[in-house]
Amino acid sequence: AQSVTQPDIHITVSEGASLELRCNYSYGATPYLFWYVQSPGQGLQLLLKYFSGDTLVQGIKGFEAEFKRSQSSFNLRKPSVHWSDAAEYFCAVGGRSGGSNYKLTFGKGTLLTVNP
Amino acid sequence: DGGITQSPKYLFRKEGQNVTLSCEQNLNHDAMYWYRQDPGQGLRLIYYSQIVNDFQKGDIAEGYSVSREKKESFPLTVTSAQKNPTAFYLCASSIDNRGRYSNQPQHFGDGTRLSIL
Question: Cβ contact (<8 Å) for A104 and B109?
Fold first, then answer.
């Protein structure tokens, strides 16, 4: 079965500092990987996705993520955090589970607080 | 603009009552999904539908029911059998996930927050 672990429940950074959010996945084949962001009381917005090819993917809002197969990781990074980046971030792995049906499995999220 | 509309934004349920959450999309997506979100739990899949008139149970389907009579609509009913319905419910859709488009991301609505009176 596929699974996602986000080891950090809550991270606090200062505005302008760099950011790295960790994501580890478990999946038997080549995974499809996603990062989503959620502002309070809102739905999820797709930041970026990895399907194949270049292991460093660029997303919206200045975010990037690197797929490392040997470490089963897909960490999200941003070189300089803005106060508007404060939100909850979810990593997800997509794949076929229990037969032919495709599903997304989400991590439990990392809440990002940005200090001025 | 294309998107997913969930209504109402807030909903209150009395004991023994069934309530229905609406989800409509104009993205022409084939697949639609319902998730439940609880604090610290991430998103858990309730039901999903890949085509009209067909749907499958997700990981936590007990106490919920759905229908898919139209491509654009995928309403979720929270029945009285769901003893802990208080949560944030999210609807999502994607291009068909059965074939070569199986890596398509899901697009989300803004959610409905359900509480017990």
Answer: no
